[in-house]
Write a structure and sequence with these properties.
Blueprint lengths: L2 H14 L3 H11 L5 H7 L17 H8 L8 H23 L3 H26 L7 H12 L6 H14 L15 H5 L3 H10 L5 H11 L15 H27 L4 H28 L10 H6 L2 H4 L2 E4 L4 H4 L6 H6 L8 H11 L5 E4 L2 H10 L2 E3 L4 E3 L16
Parallel strand pairs: 1-2
Antiparallel strand pairs: 3-4
The structure holds zinc ion (2 copies).
One zinc ion (ZN) binds next to helix 13 and helix 17.
Keywords: Membrane, Oxidoreductase, Transmembrane, Transmembrane helix
EC number: 1.14.19.6
Organism: Ferrovum myxofaciens
């Protein structure tokens, strides 16, 4: 470790940059991490510029190089986070049995659903190989953290890491909340049109996730939805099925032992957590990439020019530390720019990007009014004019200007 190099870098940066606080944090943190040796050699002593909104976009490779110091991974911290969240999960499911009031049982079930989301977010990082520095350990931790959400690890890996991250908001590839064009919508059967209206009503993001993402594409998918077949897909499907079965059976035994209603016990201890989780993740993946300022593309050349790793993603800001409670999954621009940044450093990375690329990143303070307005405006998409439409084909947003250089 070359401390003098880092000291030099630190002083250079302090003289030249307004954002010294963020970069100083980066440097100081590296002194305490195993990965500091690698990163010290890549930390440039050159000041990192703040790119004026009128200047050409600097390009993903360069921007990623600025974030290299934030890619350092830890081992004990994420393991402790998983243990802590599993304790919360088991504690809240146990609370659904312990409380006698039906309302309290339901609330405990909702807390369990939220904690399933937290565990899933830890598993999401592991699946990106960004949770710890150890690949095999990440694969094991990811599978464990995915269990309560019944997420088959290898299928999530394909659908998310390859498809969603590789081609975000590129129609025909990225399927997550991909909008129909007016022509495509009009060619749908009346039943499918009705389902699309339900999905995009803003009321049931969990239904979309459950049907379109989990049931069709992750839980023993048919060849229509997953062309390739691998033994790992089946094993991961069986693993989450076994976990779900054990969960339901333990609840049934506990209902019998504690002389409680079997159906109420299963409803509050299993169904509510699972339904809440589906709503939470359905909402999260919708809000990450659906916004009137965010474009969809059906042409790979145009998509590539548009700096899609930054321009297609929303940073949704919550009050009351809700973002931190969700393990910073909403700091999504930094995550799309470099999936190697672990969740415990995403906030710094996002702050850094927003300071250095002012005006380039879609930042949206969350409110339910904003969410339902977005759901009202973003029904179909005009891929030529690059604007959102309602179900009658009327424009509901301004065309998104080209974002690239
Ligand atoms: Zn991801
Ligand atoms: Zn995303």
């Amino acid at each position: 470790m070359n401390y003098s190099l880092q000291g030099f870098a630190f002083n250079q940066i302090r003289r030249h940059l307004k954002s010294v606080r963020i970069l100083a944090t980066i440097v100081i943190r590296q002194d305490n991490t195993v990965t500091m040796v690698d990163h010290s050699t890549t930390l440039s002593p050159e000041p990192i510029p703040i790119i004026d909104p009128a200047e050409p976009f600097p390009g993903r490779k360069l921007v990623r190089s600025w974030l290299v110091p934030l890619c350092g991974k830890r081992t004990a911290l994420p393991i402790l986070m998983i243990i802590f969240d599993f304790a919360l999960f088991f504690g809240s499911v146990w609370a659904t049995l312990w409380f006698s009031s039906g309302i309290a049982k339901i609330l405990a079930g909702m807390v369990a659903g939220f904690v399933i989301g937290r565990l899933f977010i830890l598993g999401h990082d592991a699946c990106h190989q960004s949770l710890t520095p150890h690949r095999k350990l990440n694969r094991v931790l990811g599978r464990i953290a995915f269990l309560p959400s019944l997420t088959p690890y290898s299928l999530w890996d394909i659908g998310h890491n390859l498809v969603h991250h590789g081609q975000t908001n590129l129609k025909g590839f990225d399927f997550v909340w991909a909008p129909y064009s007016l022509e495509e919508y009009q060619a749908l059967s009346p039943g499918r049109q009705w389902l699309e209206r339900i999905y995009r009503s803003g009321m049931v993001p969990g239904l979309y996730y459950f049907v379109e993402m989990w049931w069709l594409r992750m839980y023993f998918p048919t060849k229509t939805y997953m062309g390739a077949q691998r033994p790992a897909f089946v094993w991961d499907g069986l693993l989450v099925s076994a976990f779900g079965l054990v969960w339901v059976v333990i609840l049934a035994v506990m209902a019998h032992v504690t002389h409680q209603s079997l159906w109420l016990t299963e409803f509050t201890g299993f169904l509510i957590p699972f339904v809440f989780w589906n709503f939470m993740i359905g909402f999260v993946v919708y809000a990450h990439h659906t916004h009137t300022r965010v474009a969809w593309y059906d042409n790979k050349v145009e998509w590539t020019k548009a700096q899609p790793f930054v321009s297609t993603t929303v940073h949704l800001i919550f009050r009351f530390k809700v973002g931190a409670l969700m393990h910073h999954i909403m700091e999504h621009t930094a995550h799309h720019l470099d999936m190697g940044i672990p969740l415990y450093r995403l906030k710094e990375a996002q702050d850094f990007l927003e300071n250095h690329l002012p005006g380039r990143i879609v930042v949206q303070p969350f409110s339910w009014a904003w969410y339902f307005k977005t759901a009202r405006l973003c029904k179909l998409y005009d891929f030529k004019s690059r604007c959102w439409l309602d179900f009658d084909g009327k424009r509901t947003s301004q065309p998104v200007a080209s974002f690239g250089a």
